[in-house]
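RECORD CONTENTS
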Amino acid sequence: MKKNISSIIVILALIGFLVATFFLQYEFLFLTRIASLIFALVYLVSEVKQEYFSTNKPLFILFSIISMLAITVCIILDETSATDGFNARSFMILVFVFILLVVSYKDLYTKKNVAK
């Protein structure tokens, strides 16, 4: 299987963006940014090791569930500790993460079917 360089570049750009956000408004959604950074790093590893994850899809699904739960808990903790009240727009991060996971799972599924 050939690695998709464009998706790796997008993930590296996301990691760069997340690192840059620590210098801007460092007190806003701090735990969520750390969890998102860990999620992006593991997603980068899964993109580099696509052969392994295409054969072990339950592991990828488990990672997806854990990352969604971790980011949800981090958003809730960040929003409850904020002094300016609850902001429901923060939960749009979960929609973005879910879309990334669905696209990556479909990518793994189609690459495994093409390899057969």
Observations:
- Residues 80 and 86 are 7 Å apart (CA to CA).
- Residues 57-81 form the longest helix (25 residues).
- The radius of gyration is 16 Å.
- The chain has one domain: 5-115.
